[in-house]
Each structure stands twice: as C-alpha cells, then as structure tokens.
C-alpha cells in the first residue's frame, strides 16, 4: 500500500513536470496552463485540401474523447501549434514537442482505401504523444494501417485516451467524481 502510494506520487510529480515542460515549450494561450482547464492546441488545416473536413472531424473526435487537451482551429494570422497538409506520400506526423508538429494526410494511403477520418485522428494521436501500436486491432486507433482498409474506427480506445490524459496532466487535476470512467476506474 505504501509502496503503491509512493509510486503514484512519483508518477504524479513526473506527469506534472512533463506538463509544465510542454506548456513552456509551446506558444499555447495563457489560459491553457490553468490547472483544471484543458491545454489548448491550435491547428492550421488550411493546406489539407480535400481532407479538410476529415481533419476537422479527427480533431473533434479527440475533443470528445479527452479532457486534458483541446484542439482548436487557429485564428487567421496566428501561428498554429499543429500544421496539417495534404501530400501524395504516406500519412505521417513529425512531432517537435508534445502537442506541436506537422501532419501529412498522405494520398497514398487514401488511394489504397484507408479511411481519411481514422488517418486524421491517428496522426493527431502522434502529436498528442501516442506511439504506433502495430500490429493491432481496429479498436486501437494507433494500430493504424495494420487494422486493414476495412477499419474505419477513428476513436482512441480507453488506454489511448488515458495515455493522452496522462500526457497533458488532466487525470491529476480532474476533481474526484468527475465523469470519465476510463481514468477514474484505474
Ligand atoms: Zn502512426
């Protein structure tokens, strides 16, 4: 019991440290660093061409799925944390720091029949700190292409949601009793 409490304390301290480091490293609005508020990350999808709606849907799915971070379209003239572009390669994400980087929605995978919304939320998952989990089932967002072209699931599973909450520190600041079973039940 004591060991477990100590371990949880250390985990909490580490997560807070990471959250603070992430906050300092990005150009997020000041409000994003308040303890109970989600960290706001802006994204610029103006160069995502025919995938614009899929990108917006992918961002909305993350907003529905986690409390610790919120993805918002960047205001005109502002610099975004995340840039999302269309190109003819394979979909990929380059993360600079947690919560910022560049995503390419590659037409190569779309041409092979992969779902554009799943691609969008998968690549945004990388920006939110998730690694690939390949091979894996369709229920896993980060199994990516290994789930096959028939897989159209764009939602992170409970473990993936919890990992993102941990990355952004929400699990630590959420008041007891707040609804979010995946984290509270752990
Ligand atoms: Zn991936």
Automatic annotation (TrEMBL):
Enzyme Commission code(s) on record: 3.4.24.77
Coiled-coil portions: none
Listed cofactors: Zn(2+)
Location, primary (coarse class): secreted
Extent of the signal sequence: 1-27
Keyword Cytoplasm tagged: no
Cross-referenced InterPro entries: MetalloPept_cat_dom_sf (IPR024079), Peptidase_M7 (IPR000013)
One family name in Pfam for this protein: Peptidase_M7
Protein keywords: Disulfide bond, Hydrolase, Metal-binding, Metalloprotease, Protease, Secreted, Signal, Zinc
Keyword presence, Coiled coil: no
Gene Ontology MF term list: metallopeptidase activity
Catalytic activity: Hydrolyzes proteins with a preference for Tyr or Phe in the P1' position. Has no action on amino-acid p-nitroanilides
TM annotation in the entry: none
Protein localization: Secreted
Family according to the record: Belongs to the peptidase M7 family.
Record-given protein name: Extracellular small neutral protease
């Amino acid at each position: 019991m004591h060991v477990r409490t100590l371990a949880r304390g250390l985990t909490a301290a580490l997560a807070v440290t990471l959250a603070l480091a992430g906050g300092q490293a990005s150009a997020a609005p000041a409000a994003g660093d308040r303890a109970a508020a989600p960290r706001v990350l802006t994204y610029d999808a103006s160069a995502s061409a025919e995938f614009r709606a899929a990108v917006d849907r992918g961002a909305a799915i993350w907003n529905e799925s986690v409390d610790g971070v919120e993805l918002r379209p960047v205001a005109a003239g502002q610099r975004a944390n995340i840039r999302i572009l269309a190109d003819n390669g394979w979909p990929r994400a380059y993360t600079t720091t947690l919560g910022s980087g560049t995503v390419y929605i590659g037409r190569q995978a779309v041409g092979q029949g992969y779902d554009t919304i799943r691609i969008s939320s998968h690549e945004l998952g990388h920006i939110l700190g998730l690694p690939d989990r390949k091979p894996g089932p369709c229920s896993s967002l980060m199994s990516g292409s290994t789930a096959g072209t028939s897989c159209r699931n764009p939602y992170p599973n409970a473990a993936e949601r919890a990992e993102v909450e941990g990355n952004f520190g929400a699990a630590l600041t959420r008041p007891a009793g707040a609804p979010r079973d995946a984290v509270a039940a752990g």
